[in-house]
Fold:
Amino acid sequence: MTHRLLRVLSTALALVLAGCATHVDLAPDEGQPALRVQQRLALTPSNGGLQITPDDLRAGDIVLSSTHSIVSMGVRLITVAPVSHAALYLGDGQFVEAVGAGVRLRSTQEYMDGESTIVAFRHPGVGDEHIAALNAFARQHAGKKYNTAGIVLQAPFSIGRQYCELPLIPGLVRDYCIRGLAAIQLGAIKNDRFFCSQFVLEAYRHARLPLTTADPRLISPADLLHMREGDVPSVRTEQTLQYVGHLKAAPMPSDEMAVGMAD
Structure:
């Protein structure tokens, strides 16, 4: 057993309590095992990220965010992630999101004013036909009620699924475990309502650019975050997302504590 493999195993053991999903690759230069760990800390402009403006957004961009509210803090605590909300940028200065009041459109200024942290990601395959489909889906469902039942079930599910994400569990096994647990805890009954990340997944599915084949009801904003390039997704993804940058970032306690998500 090589020293590199020993380091991989010791690192994995140290991560057991954190419940971080991992993936073992072969290092391209040496062909030795290299452990990738699910990144759960916040990349900000102060620790390797990019500061962008709304002008840098493109229609179809997925925007993850958080606020200082108790609800947002609770979601971040349960999912062990720096984001608690997901929305879609439709272009022309408009965002669409599913919130407690239902599916609604918000202007760029309203969105910027309402969130404390905002980070954008991009599906590289989005074309004009997909943008049209995303816009049509948003306007078709605008005003629909929030999936309160779905979000209530998310809390116990988010806690239970952490057993599926223990270090060194193969990605395929982790994927089956999470989907199986979701089938039990979330049930088979569906309705025409959405919570935030569910709406994003359904919109992309409608545009024939599915981000994953997993049930959108099991996907949280944290799951969307981990679908980005260089991270370890919890469920199998059809397409990794590109990090675009931060429109808004919460201040970090210190540069020493600002550990980035990127490799």
